[in-house]
Each structure stands twice: as C-alpha cells, then as structure tokens.
Amino acid sequence: MSSTRPGPPQSPPPRPLNVNEISKHLFAIENRWNGVATTEDEDAQSETTQTTSTLDGDGIDTPRASECQDDDEEDEMVSRVIANLHAKIEAVKRHKKVAAEVATLRKLLAEKEKDLAECERIMTLELGQVSG
Questions:
Q1: So which domain of life are we looking at (predicted)?
Q2: Phi and psi dihedrals of 10, rounded to 5?
C-alpha cells in the first residue's frame, strides 16, 4: 500500500498590486539603489544599530537575519512588480491590436454603408422610372 504525502502547503496566489502600491515600492527600491534613505530605511537603521551585537538563542545575528529576510521580501516584491508590469504590457499590446482591428472594421462598415446608400438611391431611381 503506497502512502501519498501531501506536498508543501501552497501559499495563496498573490493579489495583484494596484498602481499606487507598485509606484510606492518602485520608488522605495529606486531610493535604496541610489543610496537615498527613506523614513522606513532610517527607522530600520536605528533599530539595527540598537541591536547590532545581539545574538538570538540560536546564535544567529538578528539584524543580519532580518536583513536577509528583508532582501528576500524585497526580491519577492520586485518579482511581483515585474510580473505585474509584464502582464499590463501584454494587456496594452492586446488592447492596441483590438483597437487597430476595430478601426479597420469601422472603415469597412463605413464603406458598406456608403455602398448600401448608393444601392438604395439607384433602386429609388429605377422604381421612379418603372412607375413613371
């Protein structure tokens, strides 16, 4: 009898980010890359300097562990932002294709309506000749 072990617990799919969240995160990341300290960075720095030499019960330097966790969270956030931007780029491309197709169809419709109006005019003239 074979036993099936469930896989690792699945995390819920990340919710899509809105434009404000994306720009906020991109701004914070850009500031970090440019060496500009934000208020969040200053708060984190003051907390880190207070606990720099602290070791937790497992002998792990807490600020370094939290820095790694922060880096992982930042990497995850960057990945989510990039994935979200790629999805939006693809949506814009699809919208542009649809808009171009709509424009083409409108031109064709205008031509067909023009042809129909011409046919109606000719039929009206022919009916006038037949009845006159």
A1: Eukaryota
A2: -85, 130
